Amino acid sequence: MTEYRATARHDGKWWSVSFDNLPKGYAGATQGRTWAEAERMAREAVALLLDVEEDSFELVMRPADPAMAGVIVEAEKAREEAERAAARARRALVAAAVELTKTVTVRDAGAMLHVSHQQIAKLAPKAS
Description:
Strands 3-2-1-4 form a four-stranded mixed beta sheet. The model has no long low-confidence stretch (mean pLDDT 96). The protein has helices at residues 35-50, 66-100, 106-113, 117-123, and strands spanning 2-11, 14-19, 29-32, 57-63. It folds into two domains: 2-64, TTHA1013/TTHA0281-like (2-Layer Sandwich); 76-123, no CATH class. By secondary structure, the chain is an alpha+beta fold.
């Protein structure tokens, strides 16, 4: 999916948005009173300029203020790391539940993994 970048500058009560990497020959700007409105207007502007659907591209909008942009990027990285860690934890829990229930009851497996026996039963259902 194509990614377009936009920079938003806070000016009084408005966010003014400019685009950083539109295809050659294209330019545009938009604004919004709130960040959400500015982002929505930016997505709409790119779609109109390029004559594409609004969901056919990725829009990455950052504030012009480097400190603000930096903390946003850091938060996004932390969220992505947490999501990957949660997925790894889920896979490990499933593997553990499957392995443990080969030998012990779902109640014991749940106690060993500090989750409910109902969760173990969902993670490692016994074949009929």
